[in-house]
Amino acid sequence: MPTPSPAPAQPSEVITWKFQGHPAAGDRYHVTVQRASEQITALSGGRLVVEPYTGGSIYPKTEEVYGVDAGILEMGMACPMYSLDKFPQSSLFDMMSGGLTPVQMFLWHLRGGGDELAARMWESALNVKYIASVGHLPPELWAHSNRELKTPTDIEGLKMRCAGEGGEILARMGAATVFFPADEIYESTQRGVLDAFECASPTINWGFGFQEVADYLYISPSRAPTDCAHAWVNRDAWEELSPDLQMIVESVVRNVGHDFYAESVVMDDEYIVKFIDYGVKVELLPNAIVDEFLKVSMDYYDEKCAADPFYAEIVESMRAFKAICDKQDVR
After folding, report:
1. What is the tally of helices (H) and strands (E) in the chain?
2. How far apart are CA 85 and CA 196, in angstroms?
3. Are 62 and 200 members of one domain?
């Protein structure tokens, strides 16, 4: 008697997630959302299909963590400092002026206690699972400007788009600071609403067309030695995943972030040359401004630490890890 053929395997249940990141369609940072979505879908064998969305497609851009909290998005990504109004410690996870370099920041998140501190901050207040940092950037460009900057007095009255605590420090130096999403900078500068702005990296900013609207580009790691985004998953959606799918999500987010940083280092060298060739005056920020900025920032962080124990815990963790890196010349 012939052996019966085995019944065909039943297809696994397919889970579909919406993943929105803060970058607009023209922002190169959006590739991290696209790549993470593609890789999670592929490595899961199609069991977890992640659909990428640009900022504002489903939920207001820069507010993705709240869309994840509400369950409108299963997954989201944004710079932590965009939530500074509700999470006063959040900007530290982007950067600390005069603090950790991109490599040090990545290592601190991974093995220095940064991920644990981030999880405490986000998960204690929201229905989210913090996954990891995504896409650390090289030191952020200090400023694009239509006013020449020579001394600290040139900062006074400067109408400047800033984000996070770097903007608060600049405000203490007399800048008239304002924040709005990156894709609104071009028009605001073109119309004279802004004298200057801080934003991202040469590669990303060339894509925004900033070479067309600002005469000067000032470089210094003092304000933002690095920058990154955090990724979150709705807590209920996370707990519905099997352990292997959870591992895939975590691994992909980290890998995409590492790859994006390495790629950015290579591409930024090319795009700095493009800015110069276009006619933008690319200069190092004068030491007089750097020194004053770092002095004001030290006072700022000391005041914040004195007023907020959790803030102080994060700063102390970062400073201790920087000391470890400095002893081993890890830059």
Report:
1. 11, 11
2. 23
3. no
